Amino acid sequence: MQGSSQPLLRFEGVTIATRGSDSSRVLVSDVDLHVSAGEALGIVGESGSGKSLTALSVAGLLPSGVALSSGRISFEGKVLTELPDSALHRLRGKQISYVFQDPLTALNPTITIGRQITDVLSQHVGGSRKTLKRGAIEILSRLGIADAEKRVRSYPHQLSGGMRQRVLIALAMVCKPRILIADEPTTALDVTVQAKILELFRAIRTTGISLIFISHNIDVVLEFCDRVVVMYGGRVMEVGTAEEIGMAARHPYTQALLECVPRLGTNLERLRVIDGQPPGAQETLSGCPFSNRCPRALGRCHSEMPLSQQASPTSSFSCWNPAPTLAAASAS
Amino acid sequence: MQDAPLFELQDVSKTFPLARPYFPFGRKRSEIRAVSNVSLQINHGEVFGVIGESGSGKSTLGFLMGGIERPSSGSIMFCGKALDAMDRRDRNRFCRTTQLVFQDSASALNPRRKVRAALRDSLRLAGVPRVQRDGAVKSILHLVGLSDEHGLRYPHQLSGGQRQRVGIARALAMEPSVLIADEPVSALDVSVQAQIINLLLDLREKLNLSIVLISHDIAVVAHSTDRVAVMRQGEIVEMGVAHDVIHSPQHPYTRALISAVPKGLAARGSAHL
What we know:
Strand order of the largest sheet of chain A: 6-7-8-3-9-10-12-11
Oligomer: heterodimer
Structural class of chain A: alpha/beta
Shape of chain A: globular
Helix content of chain A: 25-40%
CATH topology of chain B: Rossmann fold
Number of helices of chain A: 12
Number of domains of chain A: 2
Strand order of the largest sheet of chain B: 6-7-8-3-9-10
Strand content of chain B: 15-25%
Helix content of chain B: 25-40%
CATH superfamily of the largest domain in chain A: P-loop containing nucleotide triphosphate hydrolases
CATH class of chain B: Alpha Beta
CATH topology of the largest domain in chain A: Rossmann fold
Largest sheet of chain A: 8 strands, mixed
Distance between the termini of chain B: 49 Å
CATH superfamily of chain B: P-loop containing nucleotide triphosphate hydrolases
Number of domains of chain B: 1
Order of helices and strands of chain A: EEEHEEHEHHHHHEHEHEEHHEEH
Largest sheet of chain B: 6 strands, mixed
Strand content of chain A: 15-25%
Number of strands of chain B: 10
């Protein structure tokens, strides 16, 4: 799936910090990543790892008081970070679109879902009222909403959680974007509904759209992303193909994420946990952000951020004391 | 007292009236059956799981067992005594020994009160003398893996996992023998879910608790319970020893719940460890 040589989206040394003049805090530091055309990239990490900020920075949607302090983000060769706001506005929703976690706050409760979709369409594509409406019905029924002709007249509160998430995906998909960024799109849903929404994302992938899929559940991401980025404390800890991350992860944090997911196959009485708390934004860390919770931490881990090491042509990790792969550990 | 099972539900149903139409002339009032003819037994010291999707009635079942809702029909016995026939003393004792832990710890705690104050309130209701309350707050905080310093914070100053620990601490202040936990981990990161589940299991051993664990995620329940009931549309479709239900599910709905659990790499059909 590694399509063209020129990636669609590229992050180079992206650092995001609060804007305070006297006490600027770094929230995301030095993130390098890329997404090729047609590729699905997963970003995994706990709350506060900076994965959402990374995603929001693409289309200039960072919350007020937080801004890109260095690095650049380029999309189809254009440097997004240098574009004026008006140009970004034209890209958002048309070329780059988002699906957020909570569909109830992302949708406008006072207008019908049909109207919300036609608003997006008329903004970016245009057309007569009739064609707009037809477009809305078409996208809803393509996304598995039964009786779409009637449903366009519904308000968000009249729909179930799974349906609302489908509407949100319809809003994001209606202008046929090049890249879809989904930030925890299934976290608020039941496991069974989550399975259906994941099925939908799998279908969307076949249309050739690139995808950035963010989740705190590494199993969800491994299920259908080509490559996975593991983030912690605002830094990229490990990158690799799904197979490499799932079976040959070297970073202790990645391994801990893999081991704390409850799985049905195993007979463990007790789940593995990662002791302690992720670092808060208040703390300034000189070393590896995971060092305080890491079972393999060495002295230098607390004082010096490890450099990224290449483990294979497609994978790299940042760790002074990488663990043997889980497969090797269980074999010995 | 140990002879009778902890909870014994017989043919329990709960119906709620549906909202009336604006002009109700000549319309029959319809109702929704949230729990329908449920019979089950929960034993002392057991961790009992209730699994089902939203709308399956699992939370209503928890509310019925917690005494928050009354059944429309059927009977609920707690330690051999019917809930609706209890005198005031027994009822008070039941309310103290059965505590609930909710999904959304942020809305379950008063945002204006510090953690320590919330716990002190519970201790006061539990009849702990004033002079002992500060000491008791400390020991409860330690019991759920928090430090004294967390007691000085407001709920919004805690992470989701810490807040859920406070929710559990507040329940423990009443020295309960039963915890009914309604989706205690579904709002949390996977890594924190494991911490909370393990905490509940530790507490069960330390305090000799019985736990009713309600969740939509069969994987969460599978790891921590002795027996499970699978609910769908108000009815129990399958019930049994957790291991058996998960490894050889009999009902197609249970199988559907199992297949919905994300399987990571294994789902891609590639080689798995």
